[in-house]
Amino acid sequence: MAKVKDLLDAEANSLASYLEKVKASMERILELRNFRGQAEGMEQVELDRLVNLSESYYDDINILHKDVSYLSKKRIEGKIYLAQNGLYRIDGVNIDLKEGYPIELFIEVEGVATWQIGRLIREHSSNKYCFLGESSKGYLLKPGMLAAIRLASLTHSQTDSCQGHQV
Question: What's the chain's average pLDDT?
Answer without folding.
Answer: 85
